Amino acid sequence: MMMNDAVSPWSVPPADWRRVCVEELGEKAFRGDQIASALYRQFAESWEEVSTLPAALRQRLQERYPLRPLEQVLLKDSDDGSAKLLLACPSDGERIESVLIPSKGRLTQCVSSQVGCNFHCAFCASGMLGKTRNLTAGEIVGEVMAACRYLRAKQPDGPGLDEKGRGKTELPRPGNIVVMGMGEPFDNYDEVIRALKILNDPKGLAIGARHITISTCGVVPGIRRLAEEGIQFELSVSLHAPDNLLRDQLMPVNKMWPLDVLMPACKAYTEKTGRIITFEYTLIRKFNDRPHHADRLIALLQRLPCKVNLIPLSPVEEFSGRRPESGDCKAFLDRLLQAKINTTLRFSRGKDVDAACGQLRLRKRVDER
Ligand code: SAH
Fold first, then answer.
1. For 167, which DSSP code?
2. Residue ranges per domain, the chain?
């Protein structure tokens, strides 16, 4: 079998393994359940370690569905409890980053959807080097599996497996997934949705759809497609500015889908799905953090079922914008709250591990030069 016929087992919907066993591998259907359980309960990283399967089947799986975990290149633990993983893809060694952030008793994992990004937001380190390629569904799921292995290793006395490979207690896995790492998820729609469905699947990692968030810089066709998907994933839209003049300066994507196209698509999404949208708004000193910006934002969001997440800019060398003053952040927050817009002010976590988008990969590239 040639390598390019090979499929990552992490890109196969868990329920399909029964069919694959019967139709492709000439095995009994129950082997399919064992395979799904090996992948998502046992967190197997090689077929060799799956002793519940006969050796001949393991061999065939290795040929047709080789298990090739992402290699952990670097791990940075932050003082605030977050951890950053720099991972290398087994196919070509490309590096991607993923961050684990504890919040409200849950662990949130921020995953990447592409190697680099083509959208070139002015303040974002991921876009500085452009896009190298899309990640496959198997690689995106692989990011989460790498986190699961990391979490399990961290708590050797914690949740274990019984002799049948079933979890004795709660699995050591992230409680929330946010697609807010490197890349634009709607520029890689099919693979991202495929991966998220696998993570959501009860036979996969069983992470509730409402605990899975996709964040877009405003790719309107993606918003429209997600509305038709019939799945309850959360949608976040990176807004960052209340008018086209400002948004054009920060986000080239606004030339393609300006606010007068983006906002109606958001409205249509909320009507179609009955769900709210979270708008991300990065506060940049004196650029978009003045009271009149808040007022324009309030006007823009009028009558839209939404939440706003304010994030003080995490400065990057390549962008001249500065971190806002905390008093201005607070005033901006209060103004939105007063207008009855559900708003949170989120201080960046994991600053000491370069947890902002793309920063670690950029740093590592620069270090290696
Ligand atoms: N492409 C998607 C997801 C990746 S970025 C999107 O744009 O939504 C995830 C979030 O981090 C976005 O809201 C992005 O604008 C924000 N972000 C990127 N760089 C940042 C920085 N230096 N400071 C603060 N927020 C940043």
1. B
2. 9-64, 71-157+169-367
